[in-house]
Amino acid sequence: MDLLLQIGDDGLKYIGAALAMGLGAIGPALGIGMLAGRALEALGRNPDAAPVIQTNMILGIAFTEAIAIYSLVVAVMVGFVF
Question: In CATH, what number is assigned to the domain containing residue 32?
Fold first, then answer.
């Protein structure tokens, strides 16, 4: 309990921002890894479909990365606004 009193409100705010960013980046990182792995498997099975697979992979990565950007926005809001 004494440690929480020493940290204060500002310290807890920054810990919350770090947790929001860290936990918010785990899901997109796993999603992008699985997406790229599946795309490489599909390319190995059907190399002629490379342009279509690459387009869909990049689109999926962009949507997945948007989640990480949202968590960054929340972390910045927690750190500076609240």
Answer: 1.20.20.10
Range of the domain at 10: 2-81
pLDDT at 7: 76
Question: Residue 71 has which token pair?
Answer: 């968590």
- Closest C-alpha to 35, from 66, 52, 60, 15: 60
25 phi, psi to nearest 5 deg: -95, -15
Average pLDDT for the chain: 91
Cα separation, 26 vs 82, whole angstroms: 24
**Residues with Cβ < 8 Å from 50, sequence gap 6 or more?**
43
Give the list of residues 6+ apart from residue 64 with CB closer than 8 angstroms, or none.
Answer: 28, 31, 32, 35
What is the torsional sign of CA 34, 52, 50, 45?
Answer: positive
Predicted TM-score of the model (pTM): 0.80
The domain total for the chain is: 1
